[in-house]
Amino acid sequence: MTQTKNxxxxxxxxxxxxxxxxxxxxxxxxxxxxxxxTAKGILKTxxxxxxxxxxxxxxxxxKLGGEAEDGSGAWGTFAKAVEGGAKVFGDxxxxxxxxxxxxxxxxxxxxxxxxxxxxxxSFVSTQIIPxxxxxxxxxxxxxxxxx
Length: 147
Known about the structure:
Blueprint: H1 2-33, H2 37-63, H3 76-89, H4 91-112, H5 118-146
């Protein structure tokens, strides 16, 4: 049973990891395109937070005896869409797209939380979700400032 639960936890954590890798890629693309200094500072802070979460999730997966995935998979498409949108439409749409990604990430964590073993659920609840909420909230504030 423990082996099965670990496998389920690793699968869920890898799904979260792909989302975080996508977020890192998306922020990297947005940082190349956004000109507003205030926005750039917030995006750099959020990017660093997502980079940290990638490392935390990989560590947790390895602790469970799993193999951490390397890429964003289908999530990487979102990064490309943000890059293209920022170049064509400017800073505000890029920030709005990033906020949408933050919304989606938060919803993913919350939706899958009850599927996790108690230890992994605690890790995600106390270490990952609060950081996701912070990046989400900072993007929401930035979007208000830019509109």
